[in-house]
Amino acid sequence: MTLSARHAAISHVGRQRPGNEDAYLVRPPLYAVADGMGGARAGEVASEMAVAALAELLAEPPLDDQTAAARLAEAAAEANSRIHSAASADAARSGMGTTLTALLLRDDHALLAHIGDSRAYLLRGDKLTQLTQDHSLVAEMVRDGRLAADEARLHPYRSILSRALGTEPDAEVDELRVDLLAGDVLLLCSDGLSGPVPLDKLRKGLAAGDPEKAARRLVDEALRHGGPDNVTVVVVQLLDGAAGGESDATETLVLPAEEPDRDSAPDPQEAAAGDAEAVADPLRRRHWPWSRRSGASRAAAPEANG
Ligand code: CA
Known about the structure:
Blueprint lengths: L2 E10 L9 E6 L2 E8 L4 H16 L7 H25 L7 E2 L1 E7 L2 E7 L3 E6 L2 E4 L6 H7 L5 H4 L21 E6 L5 E5 L1 H4 L4 H8 L4 H14 L6 E10 H4 L1 H4 L4 E2 L12 H13 L26
Parallel strand pairs: 1-12
Antiparallel strand pairs: 1-11, 2-3, 3-4, 3-5, 5-6, 6-9, 7-8, 7-10, 10-11
Helix pairs in contact: 1-2, 6-7
The structure holds calcium ion (CA).
């Protein structure tokens, strides 16, 4: 069976951060979300480098599946080494890194490459399944049984990653394969969505019917829950490709990030104090509190579909 897809993507700075360090890629059949970290403006550099490397190295997805899987893994490894080299070459970017959750659609299945705590979900019927595992300190504590799952969402160390792209010379990237059916909806998102928004609200938002409605609803939910972080969503809906042909059925909507609400931005010193304990932790803090940007939000990733 051949499936076609339509999609929508939104990246929003949220209500509390001064700039957007998330990036996304919508270049069917390739989709990705990256959530950068690092001092100064390094986080946005890292996330942008990750999606740019992916777009470049998978510009022409291979025809056979085995090669496609290998190329996706190679692209993630190359993105890692580019970011790591750039971080090593420039003290201002030392330690920068990013999450990456990338999805390559193949006829009736998807290949994923994943590192960090951005997530991929699959909605089938009314069942929402998280496809990826978080590579975070807190998630590992939950997997080890040292922390209850419902304690994880609000844990003070929830933002500390155990794996990221670019922070080490070699990255351990998860590779997944998921079989797909017409009607399935895939979601890629940064933790600015999955952190504050409960699973049931995610499921309801994603079930909105079409990708644009779903993406808007999900971002609205994150903002309604305080919008504590940048929030990025990529929604991909699978359709039966036999009816209209792939190109007819594909719609593209890429919305730019929006300006932050300046009035609701927190006091930077207050934010720094709140994060001081986490910064002292030997594991890397993903968003350094002094990582402030002037007003402009990040433009979205490369234009979709030309
Ligand atoms: Ca984030």
